[in-house]
Write a structure and sequence with these properties.
By secondary structure, the protein is of the alpha/beta class. The protein has one domain: Aldolase class I (TIM Barrel), CATH 3.20.20.70. The protein is 42% helix and 12% strand. The protein has an eight-stranded parallel beta sheet with strand order 3-12-11-10-9-6-5-4. β4, α5 and β5 form a beta-alpha-beta unit. The longest helix is centred in the C-terminal third of the chain and has 33 residues. The protein binds flavin mononucleotide. The site of flavin mononucleotide (FMN) has 23 residues, from α2. Flavin mononucleotide binds next to α2.
Length: 356
């Protein structure tokens, strides 16, 4: 076995990331709420779906592209919003965005980023980008961040609604992890964060009084489509669409909020049925293989987002590491199309015959 084998799977990048970062940061990135049951369930639920491929279909010409919010994407794999990239790599959010661009995938910038939307926009990265919105108690700060995202060419807003308070993340608390100086997190600093801040201090700045009326306000605040992120039920998804959202992201925040909620793979079909074509349904949580991506599309998702794996790539190898993680997933997804006998990613939706 060579001393430094080429990373072949996402798990190889996770191993390299574990070597690269200190204990507290690892607990923050890898950890989840309470007993972390939903964290494990997210991955297992995709694994436990059995595929039933067709054979003897001409798959010599394959097309993994999809259309999301009216824009053609070369693959149904996007980078989920995750906070504080400078904890993983000195190049921070710009480095992550560059990696996504190298792999031709959408990059989503978090409201809790160590760069402002304007910095990412000015970094020369031209790939498609979305902006994730936390509604701070100081709504003027949120509106300013949105205005900056609009100005900076971000193409959609992901309004995260599953964090009225922070899930209790025991693994992280036990390490005494602090994010760092509030000054290094422009959104948090503008929203009133000062000095050395923990995740709890940050979460305390977020408005717990958010309701569907606010979604309507944010949907009307700019021309950008709003995707409501953090929905786990069909009835909530229908309310999101009614409130003016262009779609929803089925997400349990990577198991980091309310523990023992279902895996996203388990509720995706219910949400797709409730939205019934009136909006987009995206999904994240536990996507680690190209087959997971294929299963999500069969169940009706228009694209998936990956959170932790992109952080593994960033910590292990900067932009090139991010790109490598995304390229592995893309390659696995392309092979899945061929091996399922469905050469066009757009034809996966609704093919329940492909699932046991
Ligand atoms: C370290 C970390 C930070 C995150 N920060 C945010 C955030 O700032 N905003 C947000 O909407 N979601 C955030 N999330 C949730 C992700 O967007 C996504 O829902 C989740 O990571 C998907 O699960 P996965 O990590 O298994 O792919 C974060 C997740 C992680 C792991």
């Amino acid at each position: 076995m060579p001393a430094d084998p080429t990373p072949t799977t996402l798990a190889d990048f996770e191993a390299a990331y574990r070597e690269a970062l200190p204990e507290g940061t690892l607990a923050y990135y890898s950890g989840a709420a309470a007993d972390e049951l939903t964290l494990g369930r997210n991955e297992r639920a995709w694994q436990e779906i059995t595929l039933r491929p067709r054979v003897m279909i001409d798959v010599s010409d394959r097309n993994p592209s999809v259309t999301v919010l009216g824009r053609e994407l070369s693959s149904p794999i996007a980078v989920a919003p995750t906070a504080y990239h400078r904890l993983a790599h000195p190049g921070g959010e710009e480095e992550m965005a560059r990696g996504a661009e190298e792999a031709d995938c959408v990059y989503t910038l978090s409201s809790l980023a160590t760069s402002r939307p304007a910095n990412v926009a000015a970094s020369g990265v031209e790939g498609p980008r979305w902006f994730q919105v936390y509604v701070f108690r100081d709504r003027a700060v949120t509106r300013e961040l949105i205005a900056e995202a609009v100005e900076g060419g971000f193409e959609a807003l992901l309004l995260t609604v599953d964090l009225p308070v922070l899930g209790r993340r025991d693994r992280e608390i036990s390490t005494g992890f602090v994010v760092g100086d509030a000054e290094s997190v422009p959104g948090v600093n503008a929203a009133g964060g000062e000095g050395l801040i923990s995740m709890q201090d940050t979460a305390d700045l977020i408005d717990p009084s958010l309701t569907w009326d606010d979604v309507a306000e944010f949907a009307e605040a700019s021309d950008l489509p709003v995707l409501v992120k953090g929905v786990l039920r069909g009835d909530d998804a229908a309310l999101a669409i009614e409130a003016g959202a262009a779609g929803v992201v089925v997400s349990n925040h990577g198991g980091r909020q309310l523990d023992t909620v279902p895996a996203t793979a388990e509720v995706l079909a219910e949400v797709v049925e409730a939205v019934s074509g009136d909006g987009e349904v995206l999904v994240d949580g536990g996507i680690r293989r190209g087959t997971d991506v294929a299963k999500a599309l069969i169940l009706g998702a228009s694209t998936v987002l990956v959170g932790r794996p992109a952080l593994w790539g960033l910590a292990a190898g900067g932009a090139d590491g991010v790109a490598a993680v995304l390229e592995i997933l893309k390659d696995e997804f392309d092979r899945s199309l061929a091996l399922l006998g469905v050469p066009n990613a757009r034809d996966l939706a609704g093919r329940s015959d492909l699932l046991a």
